[in-house]
Amino acid sequence: MAATQLAAGDRNVADNSVIPSEPAATATSAAATTTPSRATPSNPAPAPDTTNPESYEAQHVHQVYNTIAPHFSATRHKPWPVVAAYLASRPPGSLGLDVGCGNGKYLSCVPPGCFALACDRSDQLVGLAARSQQRTTTTAAAATQSSSQQPQPQHQNNQALVADGLALPFRDSRADFAICIAVVHHMSTRTRRVAALSEILRCLTPPGPSFDGSDLGAESGRAGGGGTVMIFVWALEQSSSRRGWGEGGEQDLLVPWVMKGDHGREKKKKGGKKGPAAAAGDGQEDKRIGQDGEEASPPAAGKPDQTFQRYYHLYREGELEEDIVAAHGRVLSSGYDRDNWWAVASRAAPS
Question: Is the pTM of this model over 0.70?
Answer without folding.
Answer: yes
